[in-house]
Write a structure and sequence with these properties.
By secondary structure, this protein is an alpha/beta fold. The chain has two domains: 148 residues, Quinone Oxidoreductase, Chain A, domain 1 (Alpha-Beta Complex); 123 residues, 3-Layer(aba) Sandwich (Rossmann fold). 29% of the residues lie in helices and 27% in strands. Strand 15, helix 8 and strand 16 form a beta-alpha-beta unit. It is globular. 45% of the residues are buried.
């Protein structure tokens, strides 16, 4: 089978096509023949070495497809089931073996392309708005990179909960996308003072929560944008990791900062299923729609990484085997 392997840490150029034997599922595992593979920013962290891992390695944590074979003891699925998974490394391939208890069934109402595009990003949005910070109708929230994969889902989900959404984006084209998603206010962070605009929009009160997947470049503005006892959920490092800071910086308004990870919110199979069901429910209701902004052949994963890191993508990006 075709797979895309990072031969060492580095830029997109380290991704190379390789021919690997089709794996066989062991006890408790399933073999999934991929229909679509999701591209996520965490893939670039693995490739670059920001999140260290043994190299060479087949990247990718998310895909959707059809169960082709079952390992011993698997009762959760049968051959032919439509499934999606995240969290199992090796998705940049035509097929992969994954633990059965870390995959979920895809309902008929959701295409496999959408499932591959949304599962990791959508479950990230789910825990951020429902469990990391419980968004309520009266809340004002700030979402950075609102036209991106997670950001676009956050905007819609927060709006469906009745919150007022302030979105930041990097261009006029992405501002139009954020407005179409339902953002109440849009800030171009390359041209405007984000914290000053947030203060203007909120009458000086600030926001209840900031969802920040950008990292280093937005951290200071995120802190300054928070209301008293506000929460900064810094869940990504698109611009680089947040630099060290003193907890005393939080004391002026009793602020909270958390660096949450999805996989700490879907530890058990029960948590995984609950998160997926909540996600599929908002998709079925129409409250959240998924924009697959671009697709690349699996063999062109290098170009997909270049587009993602060059901020030339909108919505979700898929690799197609």
């Amino acid at each position: 089978m075709l797979a895309m392997q990072a031969v060492r840490t580095g830029g997109p150029e380290v991704l190379e096509a390789v021919d690997l034997p089709l794996p066989a599922p062991g006890p408790g595992q399933i073999l999934v023949r991929h229909h679509a593979v999701g591209l996520n920013y965490i893939d670039t962290y693995h490739r670059s070495g920001l999140y260290p891992m043994k190299m060479p390695a087949v990247l990718g944590l998310e895909a959707a497809g059809v169960v082709e074979a079952l390992g011993e003891g698997v009762t959760r699925f049968v051959a032919g089931d439509r499934v999606a998974y995240n969290g199992s490394l090796g998705a940049y391939a035509e097929a992969a073996v994954v633990p059965a208890d870390r995959a979920v069934k895809v309902p008929d109402s959701v295409s496999l392309e959408v499932a591959a595009a949304v599962l990791l990003k959508g479950m990230t949005a789910e825990f951020l708005v429902r469990r990391c910070f419980h968004v309520k109708p009266a809340d004002v929230v700030l979402v950075h990179a609102a036209a991106g994969g997670v950001g676009s889902i956050l905007v819609q989900w927060c709006k469906s909960l009745g919150a007022t959404v302030i979105a930041t984006v990097g261009s006029e084209a992405k501002a139009a996308i954020a407005r179409d998603l339902g953002a109440d206010h849009v800030i171009l962070y390359d041209h405007e003072d984000v914290a000053a605009r947030v203060a203007e929009i909120t009458g000086g009160k600030g926001v209840a929560v900031v969802y920040d997947g950008v990292g280093k470049d937005t951290f200071e503005a995120s802190l300054k944008s928070l209301a008293r006892r506000g929460v900064l959920a810094t869940f990504g490092n698109a611009s680089g990791p947040v630099p060290p800071f003193s907890p005393l910086e939080l004391s002026s308004r009793s602020l909270f900062v958390t660096r949450p990870r999805l996989f700490d919110y879907i530890v058990s199979t029960e948590e995984l299923d609950e998160s997926a069901q909540a996600l599929f429910a908002v998709l079925a209701s129409g409250a959240v729609r998924i924009d697959i902004g671009q697709t690349f052949p699996l063999s062109e994963a290098r170009a997909a990484h270049e587009a993602l890191e060059g901020r030339r993508t909108t919505g979700a990006t898929l690799l197609l085997p």
